[in-house]
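Support case: user asked for a sample of complex input and structure output to validate their parser. Sending the pair below.
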Amino acid sequence: MSFPGALRASRDWVDHIARSSPARLALLVFAAIIAVETALLSLPAATASGERAPFADALFTATSAVCVTGLVTVDTATYWSFFGQVVILVGIQIGGLGVMTLASILGLAVSRRIGLTQRMLTAVETKTTGLGEVGSLIRAVIVASAVVEASLAVVLVPWFLDQGESLAPALWHGVFMALSIFNNAGFVVVHGGLTPYVGDWWLGLPIVVGTFVGAVGFPVILNVARQWREPRRWSLHAKLTVVTSAVLFAGAAVAVALFEWTNPATLGRLSLGDRVLASLVQGMTPRSSGLATVDVGQMRESTWFLTDALMFVGGGSASTAGGIKVTTLAVLVLAIVAEARGDRDIEAYGRRIGSSTVRLAVSVAFLGSTLVGVSTLLLLMITDLPLDSILFEVISAFATCGLSTGITADLPDAAKYVLTGLMYAGRTGTITVAAALALRERRRVIRMPNERPIIG
Amino acid sequence: MSFPGALRASRDWVDHIARSSPARLALLVFAAIIAVETALLSLPAATASGERAPFADALFTATSAVCVTGLVTVDTATYWSFFGQVVILVGIQIGGLGVMTLASILGLAVSRRIGLTQRMLTAVETKTTGLGEVGSLIRAVIVASAVVEASLAVVLVPWFLDQGESLAPALWHGVFMALSIFNNAGFVVVHGGLTPYVGDWWLGLPIVVGTFVGAVGFPVILNVARQWREPRRWSLHAKLTVVTSAVLFAGAAVAVALFEWTNPATLGRLSLGDRVLASLVQGMTPRSSGLATVDVGQMRESTWFLTDALMFVGGGSASTAGGIKVTTLAVLVLAIVAEARGDRDIEAYGRRIGSSTVRLAVSVAFLGSTLVGVSTLLLLMITDLPLDSILFEVISAFATCGLSTGITADLPDAAKYVLTGLMYAGRTGTITVAAALALRERRRVIRMPNERPIIG
Ligand SMILES: [K+]
Ligand SMILES: [K+]
């Protein structure tokens, strides 16, 4: 086959798969990016020692970067070379855009047929943002990323200079942290981690604010940016996301403060101001930055368990965050309130939420729970670790959060592969995976007669 | 007020509450029965030693009996007197009928107005059973209980005689076990528990069969009893319940065999036949008999975690079992399959399942998860026990299962009260509790405009 012929064939293939199963295209795009990153991290030049990284660690790190998780089996600051860290940072930036955006970019770049890729987005982003065309939507997403990341870097580069670094490393570290924060990636290239800076507001506030902005998601960022002065005119999605995120953040910060106030290994020995900042940062980490400034491994079991629940919920839809998403939680809660009150409709902010939305929320939450449950069972069988650490690690991987009680590095390879698969399924979305695996799509014309089984 | 006047006033009050909030009436009936049982168990005559039982233990045991749970802080066979055991058995028999049946009986007995109580049942039992009238439905439920319990006693009394007991104790023990099995109560009056009889099919098979029949629920028992030869004509509810229960039982038995086959403390030292019977009994316990014939405390962590999931699901609706119910699981799974396939309707056995049923299933599952999560968090704070034992105990209490890793007796009073509340909420039904607590019922005429937030 000639070169133009091969190009045309691959274009037709992308066309075909985008038309027949957008979910499968999205999964393929993500898998391909992870494969390339794994290959690059497998080069000897990627490690500080110059020795080839073991496959399990290269795959785990590549997946953790592209899925913006931040769980690491090796120390990012010391194990990888500058080249290796650049590879990780590129993975974070690409992965942070999200699976739908990436699939759309591929569709635009290869097949130049907006009509097809638009179909993928109509059900999701466009209705919310009001931007009709996919091309301009993708541009807006990339511009939003760049603007927030640049703002964070402008704050963080001077912080690294203030720590005594010279210009080049301060620039590198500042940009790396800016991208890691906005993309909720959880990777840290600061030697010795963030715990020494638990009381530093100059570092802590950008983490809290940057995480929040990245985690509400691109549809909300674009919506709010256009209608900054008129919150009442925001979309239902934007209102639900912002309010639920804010409530979860405040509740988590208060709970962490309450649970850890007297724990000498975390908040107990800090000054009052430092405890407040540490609680704020810890309250935001489950959204899913994973950037902790206290030792998670030393937290109380009750804090771990609460963090499990918060990580599972995660951040906003079509965001840099993971989890089942805050709107999923909000819709489920609204459905239950309506059920308990005996209301026919589920309502919020003067809008009705339809039953198909509830069904999607159920699917996402139930598939997420099942995936977490099965993975936990596997790790209980593979390792001798207790349930609390395993459940924490599994939910952190699923929700691409990156917090850990400290077991990641010592896990056997089989457990690393389970977590790798979990990060992939968590970031691409359980329902995307389920739709891609579904044997066929069916459209029936004849409706069956209705019958109610007894529930509960 | 004269006596007839007081009677009329209380009748009017029951009338009023049955009309305005059937959920609250159901909760009140259950709480009243538990209060009476607690008072009886607080009498010195109720204990073998003749000393008054501590309030926390009397309340816990009364709740465990009426909620047919079987978790115990004191040994049933040795701590309570014969009178105390009779009180427990009466609690089991009354509680096994279920909250809706009890509320209906009260409604019939006091206010003699079937119309009102029927409203409580129309949404639930009558549609499924096809029996129009509440009075005959209640009679059918009581007759079904008595028939199955008598059949079990006919098998079990000879077993106790065969163990060398004389007629009176054999009768008492046989009847107690028959009621404990059918009502999924999990109480045992055999000294030394059931583990010595792990290989005894004469005892094991009645446990498996009796648990299954009790756990499918009265609507299914009545439906199947009438249409024994025509499974195709069973209601959708009966089909879903029987099939889901059978699949869970088979899967659980195989999983227990796989996980525990080489564990010397459970199946490892048994003969092949004994391992098979033990796996069958253990596969049925989470449905929620709680009658284990191997030492649950010695099981592997993976078996505990799988049992957590199985207990949470529990048995059938309007049955003697607990949990979120098998139809809730079935409807959620069917909803997800439909979602992944892109189907408009949720279908099973040629019937369509409506969105209001899905919403109810979501509410039950989500409220159950929330209740389990909050209770687990409380017990993590109250005690120093590890997450695995606590989660197991909490789910066992919520799902009125009664299995335990062995921590119940040593829990502090505060933890006992948490579990007491959990058994009550689990047995009366989380959605019943939520509906009773809802501030008001609203019926809107104006519908809000529809808007879809992004999910997942
Ligand atoms: K992360
Ligand atoms: K039980």
